[in-house]
Amino acid sequence: MSAVFDPSTYTQQLDAKVARLRELLAPFAAPEPAVFDSPREHYRLRAEFRLWRENEQRFYAMFAPGEKYTPILIEDFPIASQQINDLMPRLKAAWQASSALSFKLFQVEFLTTLAGDAMITLCYHRPLDEHWEAAAQQLASDLGVSIIGRSKGKRVVIGRDYAVEELQIAGRTFRYRQPEGAFTQPNGAVNQKMLNWAYEALGEREDDLLELYCGNGNFTLPLATRVRKVLATEISKTSVNAALHNLDDNAVDNVRLVRLSAEELTEALNEVRPFRRLEGIDLKSYQFASVFVDPPRAGMDPDTCELTRRFDNILYISCNPETLAANIAQLHDTHRIERCALFDQFPYTHHMESGVLLVRR
């Protein structure tokens, strides 16, 4: 847990982030950012704890950065969802009462959703046997959750290996599978605000959208309803499979998804080389006017950044405002910032999520 968690300071820390974003975007004559705040507590839908053994008992524990041997023992976790806080003592009581569950258990991961679904991953330094599986079956039933057991080279699933989320965007409910071990937005309330902002920023269009780094389809589903069709790319196989399920579950049928990195797609669009994974997809049939990007913290590499320059509209969600500013600097001669926003996904930390809509000059 962040050592500076203090709801009374929330407005002050958010104001500091807004000032920082204004400073970074000032060289590009950015408009005033829209600001989307977070719940002050119980906002984080996932949490991961090491377990610390003391007096023959195991406790939830976290460690300060760089510190391995001085645990912070945790009974509750106010930044995590109320559901995680409700499950923590019940899970602890279960492992204390069962050696099959507690023996060589070293890590616990919770994933919850705004829709009320929950999945718990239990990680072990030992093989999982039929005694563990019987105890885990009972635990899953008692807690009303899915349980994933992990040990070296083995994964046992009790229930589902994903949690189900439902998000409200522009009056429509979108349903998402969130796989165990795959990236999901941690702050569900702010994610919902972010999706609605992106939906409005893109607008209703009659041409096509290219999406890079689509993940499990978090943005793909609502944005696909704004355009004629979408070509989306993602390199993670787990995320691609989840996105395909999510498209099907929501009856979104105007998206083609390919497992390519942004760099590989750049080569394909520039006709540098063909890709077998693009067989059956006629790139020339797309009328791309907009591109949506949500890159990792390193931002877009220079070649991908140059690729986005060919689009009239660049909708960019960033988890690192410094690399966002660097990418905008590369594009500033051809594109201007029409909209920008700050999404406080990570309260009480220096991290911030931001978004810009760049349009051709």
From TrEMBL:
Alphabetical list of SUPFAM superfamilies matching this protein: S-adenosyl-L-methionine-dependent methyltransferases (SSF53335)
Keyword terms of this UniProt record: Methyltransferase, S-adenosyl-L-methionine, Transferase, tRNA processing
Catalytic residue positions: 319, 353
One Gene Ontology molecular-function label: tRNA binding
Membrane spanning stretches: none
Entry's EC annotation: 2.1.1.35
Record: residues binding S-adenosyl-L-methionine: 185, 213, 218, 234, 294
Record carries keyword tRNA processing: yes
EC category: transferase
GO terms (BP aspect): tRNA methylation
Coiled-coil intervals: none
One GO term describing the cellular component: cytosol
Top-level taxon of the source organism: Bacteria
InterPro entries linked to this entry: MeTrfase_TrmA_AS, MeTrfase_TrmA_CS, SAM-dependent_MTases_sf, TrmA_MeTrfase, U5_MeTrfase_fam
Catalytic activity: uridine(54) in tRNA + S-adenosyl-L-methionine = 5-methyluridine(54) in tRNA + S-adenosyl-L-homocysteine + H(+); uridine(341) in tmRNA + S-adenosyl-L-methionine = 5-methyluridine(341) in tmRNA + S-adenosyl-L-homocysteine + H(+)
Gene3D superfamilies reported in the protein's UniProt record: 2.40.50.1070, Vaccinia Virus protein VP39
HAMAP family with a match to the protein in the record: RNA_methyltr_TrmA
Function noted in UniProt: Dual-specificity methyltransferase that catalyzes the formation of 5-methyluridine at position 54 (m5U54) in all tRNAs, and that of position 341 (m5U341) in tmRNA (transfer-mRNA).
Protein family: Belongs to the class I-like SAM-binding methyltransferase superfamily. RNA M5U methyltransferase family. TrmA subfamily.
Protein name per the record: tRNA/tmRNA (uracil-C(5))-methyltransferase
Phylogenetic placement of the source organism: Bacteria, Pseudomonadati, Pseudomonadota, Gammaproteobacteria, Pseudomonadales
